[in-house]
Amino acid sequence: MTSSTSPDAVWLNVSPSFERFDHKLLGSLARHVAVAHWAYRQTPDEPSSLNTAATLLHDYLKGQDQPIHLLGHGTAGLVGLLYARQNPHRVKSLTLLAVGVNPMVDWQAHYYTQLERLPCSRRQVLTQMVYSLFGHQARPLVRGWVNLLEQDLIHSVSPHSLLKRVSLCPGSVAVPLLVCGGESDFVVDPTQLQGWQPWLKAGDRIALCPGRHFFHAVYPHQVASQILSFWGTTASVLVAPQGLTIS
After folding, report:
1. Is the dihedral of CA 53, 55, 59, 62 positive or negative?
2. Strand pairing of 68-73 and 177-182?
3. What average pLDDT score do residues 118-126 get?
4. What is the reported pTM?
5. Percent of the chain with pLDDT over 90
6. Are residues 63 and 133 in the same domain?
7. CA pseudo-torsion sign 88, 90, 94, 96
8. Is 41 left (phi over 0), alpha (psi -120 to 50) or beta?
9. Which range of residues forms the domain containing residue 214?
10. How far is CA 102 from CA 35, 36, 78, 91, in A?
């Protein structure tokens, strides 16, 4: 885990296989604000635990002397959401990328559902997921993308498995919220994104960007502009402590 001395924002990552997709967006944001990178890495022997990730994030953030902008894509965004609901006074704002109103829905949920329903091998389903997530790929490149997804199945803290799919009821969050999604994302489609509408507060935003699930990797400057514009409106918005007991 690396960070600035006093960051304005913290980018969350719980999927080491997908970290490469974050670099361009973080570079764009870092030209304007101090952005720290927080990563949780789970070993194959550890049970998948979102709560463990959120607890370790709290251990990091409680050392900061001011509320922080939190950002995350997919499952990392889910960790940020869970944390912001528990500790809103430590979060200046929350930016969720590819997190729908049903925030547990991720690419692995779709993968296991298809693996259960389709008369196809694991490799065939992963290959189809490559095309769904990344669009058309030259055949020699597909194997590499499949291997990338296999690594995420091993190392990500996604709560899903072939035996069970986990859900979380839609709901609000007390801190300023920006939700961004890709127009062509099959994991979190525009309907899932717009499903946040009933839960938004004054000043909260939904931004639909071009691209698929990893839209922030392909359109980093456009996504950065949305985030920076949103942050500019949150300067005077702070959430009072909720009287929670924090261990």
Report:
1. positive
2. unpaired
3. 91
4. 0.89
5. 73
6. no
7. negative
8. beta
9. 9-103+169-232
10. 27, 27, 10, 21
Q: What is residue 5's predicted lDDT score, i.e. its pLDDT?
A: 66
Report in angstroms the alpha-carbon separations of 236 from 6, 21, 196, 206, 239: 19, 31, 23, 20, 10
Cβ atoms of residues 172 and 181 within 8 Å: no
Q: 204 CB contacts (<8 Å, ≥6 apart)?
A: 176, 177, 178, 179, 196
Buried b (16+ CB within 10 A) or exposed e, 148-172: bbeebbebbbbbbeeeebeeeeeee
How many Å separate Cα 208 from the centre of its chain? 15
**Is the residue at 81 inside a domain?**
yes
| 5 vs 118, more confident | 118
Burial 194-212 (b: 16+ CB within 10 A, else e): ebbeeeeeeebbbbbbebb
Structural domains counted in the chain = 2
Contact 15, 75 (CB under 8 A): yes
| 247 class by beta-carbon count within 10 Å (0-12 exposed, 13-18 middle, 19+ buried) | exposed
